[in-house]
Amino acid sequence: MADQPAGGHAPAGPATAAGPATAAAAGAASAKGAGAEYGVGIGWRPEIAGFVTELPGLRFAEVVAESVHAHGELPSGLEALLARGVTVIPHGVRLSLGGAEPVPGDRIEHFAAVAERLAAPLVSEHIAFVRAGGIEAGHLLPLPRTREAVDAVTANVRRVQRSLSVPIALEPIAALFDWPDDELTEAQFITEILDRTGALLLLDVANVYANARNRGTDPEELLDQLPLDRVAYSHVAGGAEHQGLYHDTHTDAVPQPVLDLVAALCARHRPPALMLERDGDYPPAADLRIELDAIAKASGYPAVT
């Protein structure tokens, strides 16, 4: 994580109603020194809870925020991680920060309550929309890179920040297409949102690779254009090609080009904490260990297995 990301003891400070300037300063302060401290982590999922709980060198994990009850008992796997001092970060998937409608208050309240329940030092969500006209898409959908979309994301992020006591990191998604009326490059779009909200960046290396491959561009060019000092932490995941397009599946092993991009990221800036994402078709524990060890090798971090 950018410098103080996932450490359950970082001072909460952030992006609140004080505004983007204060949020940016707080976010920068909470982004110091995290990579080496947190190293390589993994997304907690019920199907692999036992495996995650038993990882001896694990310092941080991530959980889908909407899968956690804000009050009452937590799933036993999460309780065990917290008892071990492992930092657990809530990762939202249903706020629809890029939607034209304001984020519903009950979703914001749940998001903030889960962060408090887990004593998380930050939270994360996507630069995307999942809802329009009252219809839930069930998928993360890409935004046109327009100034109107920047305004919409900014307004919704600020609404969420007013209920949070910790920083929020925003994740650009993998997309199979670009809208025809884009006004900004991807780097410009992301940077303007971060600047206007004071948010941190959740940089998904697999998304960078997928988008570049599908567009026929060099993924390292985006790394050179993004504010890497704002990276809170990074996702790493696998994918597969289907009908000429590369899909960010989270069900395939991390390919070598994504590991190479991890190394390229870590060579450009202090290595952030890196998190393996798997969301279905879970392989045997031995294969998960191989993936985690490969990420550690690419980044220079010690193995967590």
From TrEMBL:
Pfam families: MbnB_TglH_ChrH
Stretch forming the signal peptide: none
NCBIfam families: PRK05409.1
Protein name (record): Uncharacterized protein
Source organism of this protein record: Paractinoplanes atraurantiacus
